[in-house]
Amino acid sequence: MRLFLPQAQLEEWALEDKADVKDGQLVVTGEQGVYPVTPAVHILQVVSGEDAQGLVTKVKTEDQLKTLGAEQMADSVLLGDTAYEVVPGYLAEVPLPPSDAPSEDGKPGSETDLLAAFLLNKMG
Predict the structure, then answer these.
(1) Across the chain, where does the E strand assignment appear?
(2) Whole-angstrom Cα distance, residue 19 to residue 11?
(3) Which residues does 106 contact at the CB level (< 8 Å), separation at least 6?
C-alpha cells in the first residue's frame, strides 16, 4: 500500500517524537519496522495554464516529475506554461496486510496493520 504523507504532518510528528524520516525511511517511535519513503508531491490544483497532463489530484514522485520535464519549487510545480499548487511530502511504501480482519486472538493484526491505522488516524 502506498500512503502520501504531507511534509507538514511529518514535521508535526517529529516535533511530538512520534515519527521521523531518516535516510529515506519512515521510522515510527516504538515500532521496530521502518518503511521506505520517496519524496513526492500531491498536486492540488492548476494555478495558471491548462492541466493537459491530467495531474490534478495525483501524487507524483520527484523522479516522475523529472521524467515529465516538470520542476518543483517549494509548494509549486511548473510544467511548461502550467503552474500547479502542490503539497510536498513523501510517498510511504507500507506492505498490504493479508487481511483487514484482526488476528484470531482478537488483537489488531500485524505491525503493518498498526502502522497503517496509526498513519491513517493521524492523517484524518
Answers:
(1) 2-6, 19-22, 25-28, 34-48, 59-61, 71-73, 76-79, 82-93
(2) 9
(3) none
Angle, helices 7-15 vs 111-123, to 10°: value is: 110
Residue 106 grid coordinates: 482478537
Residue 46 CA, chain-centre distance (Å), reads 20
Sign of the CA dihedral running 7, 93, 32, 124: positive
Kindly tell me if the per-residue pLDDT of 124 is higher than 50: no
- The band of 101, judged by pLDDT with boundaries at 50, 70 and 90, is very low
Q: Which residue has the higher pLDDT, 27 or 105?
A: 27
